[in-house]
Design a protein that fits this description.
Length: 276
Amino acid sequence: MKVISFVNMKGGVGKTTLAVNVADVLSRRLDKRVLLVDLDPQFNATQSLYGGEAYLELRKSGADTIYDVFANPAPIISAVKGATTPQPKKLSDITPTAFSDSLHVLLGNLEIYRVEMGGGQGTEMRLKGFLKHKIDDYDYVIIDTPPTPSVFMSSALLASDFYVVPVKPEPMSRVGIDLLQGVINRVSENNGHDIRCVGVVITMAQKNTVVYKDCLRQLQSEPKWRKRLLRHSIPQRTAIAREQGNQRLILDVNDTDANRAIVNVVAEIVKKTDDT
């Protein structure tokens, strides 16, 4: 089982879109058993797969969420009317939701922010502990992380073998990933955990624009990022953002270039994780 976190300290870079669509391609095109973990308190990855009503029904039926992994000893009162509020579960008893036969989801939960406020010893290792119980169930685990340094980002990194950095072509892109690398290095060194960079992926790419060319030039000018920059990028498409709100992913959109792009990005990620 390979665990890959998708990380960036800046929002709006297409991190969630990339994570969800990589999970979708792995399961749908490559027939891999995939678990998508929605660790971002905004739970946009979950909303990319389930509409509001469907999500509420899952919560009301008692479906497990990321909160169950980090639950404090005392149960909370749910903000979802009619949802059950069970006692915290053992990590081994938490069950992801089956989105399809080969793609399962550990649903996001806005209430996870309460864990951050309360803290608790060993919190950062909870996700790693949960995934140990799933090691024979999945080929890949894709983790969508929050866009700020936190116990949740640390938890994702400590549970992961690899990480991917989505970058939107904009003037501050290289500064952002340099800061991110510092956070990752501190987490790794402080905990004796080796996590490897699979690659940097340019998202929302418009290849004929000045900002795209500047971003590419910046990344290629720095040796540590040049060797990690993936050859393929995700193009900017209004349809991708619009249809994601309707729970339709890139493979569902009638756009040959976008389809080819996400498949090629996944192929690069798979090869790099196989080679390391």
